[in-house]
Please model this.
Amino acid sequence: MRYLWLTLAILLAGCATQVPSFIVAPQIFWPQQMELNGKVFSFALVDLRPRAQTLTIRQGSKEQHYRTSNDVRAQLEQTVAAALQEKGATLNSQSPVQMKIQINQLQSNVIQRPLDHQVTNQVTMTVFIQSDNGSFTKSYAGDSNFTSPLKVDLAAVERELRVLTEQVLNQLLQDPAWKDALN
Model:
């Protein structure tokens, strides 16, 4: 009987210390226009964030860092590539025209206090276009913050970071400046 209680206690302790699931999987919603029709370029999305963790929770002097449960870089690359192709672009890795989107910052910082918590989200991305005609570089950024009562709700933090990421991606993808640089 003691063995059974010991086993149950260990199982419960293991369940209580699970790493939270935190997923960032934005979607892109564009007006249905074939504005990239006939454009051929290579595309890559790189993650150059200074730290691999996306979520940081601070409570007093204690700090916990968490990575996303999904591969954010691959998720964003797949989402943006699909959006570019829906707009009529042909993505060809052998093309002399190169488009690269760099993730500079994609993070959510939570300060947990006894009666409430404060969340600050930050997303920064840079687009690079390189062609025989020259190069183009422009950064796009957004931030958001909110305060809520009691303990942090990770689903709400996840949703807010996803929405902010979608806003920055839409800002980037709808900017005519980089599209002109493809010519």
Notes: DSSP finds four helices and seven strands in the chain. The chain has a mean pLDDT of 89. The longest helix spans residues 154-174. The radius of gyration is 21 Å.
